[in-house]
Amino acid sequence: MSVGTASVLVAVWLACALARRRRPSRWVTVTGAFAREFTAIMLLLGLWQYVGAFVHTRVAGAMERGRHVASLEAAMHLPSERAVQHVLLVVPRLSEAADVYYAYAHLNGTALFVVWLWWRHRPFYPRARFVIITSTLACLLVQSVPVAPPRLLPDLGFVDTALRDGHSVYGEFGAGMSNQLAAMPSVHVAWAVIVGWYVFWAVPRRWRWLGPLHTVLTVLVVVGTANHWWLDGLVGAGFVALAMLAGWGAPRLWRRGARGPAPVPARAPEAEPGMARIPSIRP
């Protein structure tokens, strides 16, 4: 579906490019720019779906890796995901709300954020686009190694709340969607960190708290619904931080390389060894 949408966007882009040559207009220009920009986003989403399908064919070792993540978190003294899930299990309405948030806030929220940033806050958009693409590609590279999420390990005390409540976007393991083993790292958390960061800096002061709130809610939801480990989110957020540093430093290095090395200031000739420097005599 994502590749098909990208193909439609490419067709719209080319059509707008031809129309702009014949009869330029602002509407054609904006539509063509929109189609060009979001073709890359849809191709990235298609790549994500492809990686999920690839991981689905490599089930061996996924459950063991999930248990290794749980053991590593215990060794790091991280809080248990079961403590967050216990709150959802006690309050059924809260559990259902978390399941719905997980199902709809990730892709839909990020898509609306990207369109909004491109339309209303264009100066922030190029850097955000770089961070989204770079961090997502890094996540996809790691996700090629299948890791089971907590909800697929009921022996450790986890419950698949979405499947229990009838809001699962995956279905039964082995019979539903194919990307159930792409838990590490969490693209949900990575994208939520990006949304939270740029909303905080782009919107007016009285509304900027909505961005960090979305980030915090996403972390609690993906953990409480047993779709991700704490470490999944930490690694995803780490990739975002590295992408932000790369986006900040790469242009500066490029400009510095284009200017070339700084000229070395001329120095006065040194006196030869064994000879005293002759002081200048003014008339």
Radius of gyration: 26 Å
Order of helices and strands: HHHHHHHHHHH
Q: Give the overall average pLDDT.
A: 80
Strand content: under 5%
Query: Could you estimate the helical fraction of the residues in percent?
Result: 55-70%
Structure description:
This protein is mainly α and 283 residues long. The chain has 2 domains: 1-57; 61-253, no CATH class. Helices cover 66% and strands 0% of the residues. It has helices at residues 2-22, 26-56, 62-75, 81-90, 92-104, 107-120, 125-143, 161-165, 187-202, 210-224, 230-259. It is elongated.
Q: Concise description?
A:
The protein has 283 residues and is mainly alpha-helical.
Give the SSE layout.
Blueprint: H1 2-22, H2 26-56, H3 62-75, H4 81-90, H5 92-104, H6 107-120, H7 125-143, H8 161-165, H9 187-202, H10 210-224, H11 230-259
Sum up the structure in keywords:
11 helices; mainly alpha; single chain; disordered C terminus; 283 residues; 2 domains
